[in-house]
Amino acid sequence: MSMAALVAIDLRRPRSVHLGPLLAVAPALTAASAGPGTTAGVGVLAVALQFLLGVARSETETPNTAVQVAAVAVISLALVLYSRARSRRESELARVRAMAEATNDVLLRPPPARLGPLRIGCEYRAAGEVAQIGGDFYAVVRTREGTRLLIGDVRGKGLDALDDTALLLGAFRSASHLDLSLPGLAAHLDAALEWSNAQKGAGEDFATALLVDVPDAGEDIMLLSCGHPPPYVLRADGPEPLEAARPAPPLGLGVLDPDAWTVERYAFRPGETLLLYTDGVIEARDGEGAFYPLAQRLALIGGREEDRLARRVVDDVVRHTDDRLADDAALLCAYRAPG
Questions:
Q1: Bridge partners of residue 325, in order along the sequence
Q2: Lowest mean pLDDT across 87-101, 112-126, 147-161, 185-199
Q3: Burial per residue of 290-325, b for 16 or more beta-carbon CB atoms within 10 angstroms, e otherwise
Q4: Residue 79 contacts by C-beta under 8 Å, 6 or more apart in sequence?
Q5: What's this model's pTM, rounded to 2 decimal places?
């Protein structure tokens, strides 16, 4: 109902019935979606119409009219202040999101779509209304004999997690030309994080991680797990988890078992897809508290389009949580092309 219609109806009512104060509904509805300028304009119009109602009824000298005009004016002013605060918050939120996205774009540089015999796809989805910079990370580099993949999850969020993420990604990329074995690389990353902990005076920062070597020749991959969820290989007969028989401690905690850098070998044939992910995927819960059933969903989603598979899985996770993702989710896919 427009303000003009409300005024027309009020003028036809008995003098004992006053609909004028309902004019405050107009600036209230405006403040919910428009800016402070528009809200102020609607509020001024509402106050003017409330005063004109008093004039039309010849009641401008009565306390009742004065109170009604003042009430609409005070409510309109409060709504203008609310709209201004909301607009500022939305602007700040947009800046935070843009900064978080830019930071993630710098750190998590999308890998090339193709590296050797592999086609690569990745997806990252931040949790929460305010896009906090999380600790999920991934990277892909070429080595002398094939392609090396990394995915991991740093403990915590915010600047500390960002610092550790940048440190690990930098150490991983800088070591790509050193021809380190997977145990040597794991020890290198572990030492980097231990050094960072010592510099910060913190002893509890750590990161789970998966290190994977995919040789160009052959049909096997080498995998070293540092306390990270097992990856899946999507085979012709369905997804298969690659469970580590002896996972090493998370990076930064290697001192707990310095001899635990164990490499395990698994089959990875042409036409199959390797899927690495962070725990934000499998720990996502629906409204009833049920975890996301990754293996079951992979069997249904399937597909070899690695550039779309990661996004399809993350979109499915978000739907599972009714768009209330509680933790960041990252996926890295590698499809071994036939021939």
A1: none
A2: 87-101
A3: eebebeebbeebeeeebeebbbbbbebbbebbeeeb
A4: 27, 28, 30, 31, 39, 43
A5: 0.71
> Strands, DSSP E only, in 231-290?
232-235, 238-241, 264-267, 273-277
Q: Which DSSP category does 40 fall into?
A: H
Closest CA to 80 of 49, 47, 51, 41: 41
Question: Could you tell me where the beta strands, DSSP code E, fall in the chain?
Answer: 114-115, 118-125, 136-142, 146-154, 207-215, 220-226, 232-235, 238-241, 264-267, 273-277, 329-336
19-54, pLDDT tens digit by residue?
555 566 666 677 777 788 887 777 777 666 666 666
Q: How far apart are CA 15 and CA 56, in angstroms?
A: 11
Three-state DSSP state, 38 = helix
* Structure token pair of residue 240: 């298969």
pLDDT tens string 269-307? 999 999 999 999 999 999 889 999 999 999 888 655 666
233 is written with which tokens? 């290989």
